[in-house]
Structure formats: C-alpha cells, structure tokens
Amino acid sequence: MSPSHAVHAGLRPPLYRQLYFQVVLAIVGGAVLGHFQPELAVQFKPLGDAFIKLVKMIIAPVIFLTIVTGIAGMAQLRMVGRVFAKSMAYFLFFSTLALVLGLVVAHVVQPGAGMNIDPASLDTRAVQDYVQKSHELTLTGFLMDIIPKTLLSPLVGDNILQVLLVAVLFGISLALVGESGRPVLSVLEALVAPVFRLVHLLMRAAPIGAFGAIAFTIGKYGIGTLVNLAWLVGSFYLTSLLFVVVILGAVCRWCGFSIFRLIRYLKAELLLVLGTSSSESALPSLMEKMERAGAAKPVVGLVVPTGYSFNLDGTNIYMTLAALFIAQATNIELSLGEQLALLLVAMISSKGAAGVTGAGFITLAATLAVVPQVPVAGMALILGVDRFMSECRSLTNFIGNAVATLVVARWEGALDRDALERALSHPSSQLAAPPDPAAGPGDPTRLTAD
C-alpha cells in the first residue's frame, strides 16, 4: 500500500516515509553541511533551483484548470466579480495592517538605533542589480504586464496574474456558451486528475530541493552573518509571529477555526516553503489542501493566485521595518508625513512583487527609490541577512493566503464547515494528494449566494 493510500485508508505510514519528516531531515542535513563544509554546500544550489523550476512548470496548468472548471460550473457568473471584490478588500486591509505593524514595531524596538552609519561609507555595488530591477516595478508597467501577448502565452510563461486573467475570461466564456461548451469542459475536467497527480509526483522531490536550497543559503552567507544584525532579524521574526498568531489568529477564531490547527494542517507545505525560501514552491499543494478543507474550487482558484501578488503580508512587514531600520542606522529622522508617504509607496510597490525569492528586497529598493529621505545605499547593510529573512517573508505570505482563502469562502457561503473540521482534526502528514475530480469539497456547484 502506498503512503497516500495508507493515509486515505486511515493508516499512518511509517515516520520515515512521511514527506514532511523527509523535508525536516533534508533541512537539518543541508544546514549542517552548509555550516561545516560551506564550499561544498554552495555547489548544491542547482538542486533547490531545479525543484522550484519543476513546481513553477506545473503552476500555470493547475491555476488554469482549477479556475476554468470552477467558473464554468457556477450557477451565477456575477459571483465571480463578488468573490474577486471581497478578496481585494481583504488583501488591501490586511496588507495595509501589515505595513503599519512593521512601522510600529520599528519605532518600539528601534533595531537600527546606535549604529551611526555614514551612508557615504557604504559600498552600493552589491545592491546595484536589485536597484536596477526595481525600476521595472512601476504601477503602470505592473498593470500592463497582466495582459498577455496572446491567449496561450500565459500557459507557457510564469506570470501568475496573466494565467488568472486568461482563465477567468475563458471560464466565463465557456459558461456563457452553455451546452455547446460541455465537451470542452468535460475534457478540462478530465485533465484535472492527471495534472494534480503530476503535482503529487513532483512533490516527492521536495526533500532534495529543500536540501540544496538550505545548504546553499547557510554555505553562502553563514550563520555568523546573523550575529551583527540579529536584532533586526529577531525583530522581523517576532513581528511576523505576532501578525500570524494575534491578528490572523483572531480572524481565524472569528471564522470558527484555530490558526494553530490550520498551521498543523499545512505543516508539510510550510516546511517546504522554509526549505526553499519560496512560497511558490507550495502553491499547487496549497490550492489542493484548501479545496480539501472545504473551500469551493472557484474561490480557491481566484483567491490563492491573486493573493500571491496582492496579499504579501510578510513582505509588507519587512518593507516598513527594514526601511526604518536603515533610517535609524544612518541617523535619519523621518517626519510623520514622510513615514506616511513611505507607507503609501510601499503599499503600491508591494503589489508588483511575486512570492519568489528576492522579490521583497527588490520591492524595498523600489520603495526607497521613491522616498529619497531614506538612502537606497543603506540596503547594503541588510543584504547579508536578507536571505534569512526571506524564509520568514515566504512563510508569513503563505499562511496569510491560506487564511484569506478560508475567510473569503466563508463570506461567500462557499465553505463546507464539516469538510474543514475533518481536515483540521485529521491532517494528513503528506503534501496534498490528487483530488477526486468527480466529487469532494472542491465541487464548484457548492458556490452559493450568502
């Protein structure tokens, strides 16, 4: 009996065959190798990069099939607009709250106070590449980039929002043509099972990817680099923990479930995100687990991909906290008006960031470039520890999108509470397994009005 079949049959496979345990071992092994054999460890970087590329290869088909089959099966198409509006309202509120929290904690903790750094003494060559990339994060450019060159190009690219746009439009068109579109819908529904089975197969390589990524990180940057800026890194981790446990925890409690049970349910995906430092590595599994937890397929298909660009809570906390750290370290006093301007710019620039490694640092560069009071050169101070903060950004972003999906589904009356209780009470130790396309909590017909 395979591990997935054993789990479904109610029998837990041996610990060593559980994927989350394998990922834990890989992370520990990679960290040990990186610490004791750094020159050897950095050579394992291609393992992490290859795994992330494998996952990104399947993201576009997963999003496209989930959204199209979900929307085409909906009874009322106006619900698509309603779900999207509720999602954006949620994203805007909590993204802003995350920015404000980072600002407040920076004032309370003062992580950069007393460093007395002269901006002119900083070597900016190391951050030039990030600054150059940040110039591409204009609001107009971001919005224009959502529109693909052709109808099919998003399916062979890596822009999540382009896939989302095409999938929504195609799903609506398929629903409008009625009975004549049934053969096309049947083909797409039949593709769901093999595509998600492919996801399940790719996830078996997760320990290898996590090992390569964490070995490179520790080998390249070294744990010792954390010592000098431990106050900043610690402040960021504690702020993110506060946001998840207190703020998102309160939201979950209001919706009738526990944030801790949700984290336990997603533990395998969270370990994968931790190991690869990329929330995109667990996107397909997150979509599947949200359906299994009772959220309707159209809600999952709309909220999760959109959230990966518009609901980056961890990135938002990082941006305001890091910006004020640089200001404090260089003895720059920011007025209330300048801090509000920083908040507004960060709110806009963060919407162009995707859930991949390095996006937070690039977005910070874009924000500081528009707010001249804080020197962009100050980013050189945190470049050495940014990789260690990237893991926390990705974890916070991932948990935030999981909570958002369940909350929006509840608002829309599209959350199967019995399925949610079953999922959280008996979480599988494995990463998400393929769904049964013919039934289950992801049935699009469950999307009903309030």
Classified by CATH, the class is Mainly Alpha
Q: Which outline best applies?
A: globular
Can you give the mean pLDDT? 80
Q: Which structural class best describes the helix and strand composition?
A: mainly alpha
- The count of β-strands is 0
- Biggest β-sheet strands, sense, barrel: none
The succession of helices and strands, N to C, reads: HHHHHHHHHHHHHHHHHHHHH
Low-confidence segments, ≥5 residues, pLDDT <50?
1-10, 433-450
Strand content: under 5%
Rg: 22 Å
Distance between the termini: 43 Å
CATH superfamily grouping: Sodium:dicarboxylate symporter
Helix content: 55-70%
Q: How many helices does DSSP assign?
A: 21
Question: Which CATH architecture would you pick?
Answer: Orthogonal Bundle
From the 3D structure, determine the CATH topology.
Proton glutamate symport protein
Number of domains: 1
Would you kindly provide a written description of the structure presented here, covering whatever features stand out?
With 450 residues, this protein is mostly helical. The protein has a single domain (14-441), classed as Sodium:dicarboxylate symporter (Proton glutamate symport protein), CATH 1.10.3860.10. The chain is built from 21 helices and no strands. It has helices spanning 3-8, 19-36, 38-41, 45-72, 78-109, 128-134, 139-145, 160-176, 182-203, 206-221, 225-228, 230-254, 259-265, 267-276, 283-292, 297-310, 313-329, 336-349, 359-370, 383-411, 417-425. Helix 4 (45-72) crosses helix 10 (206-221), helix 15 (283-292) packs antiparallel against helix 16 and helix 17 runs antiparallel to helix 18 (336-349). The protein is globular, with a radius of gyration of 22 Å.
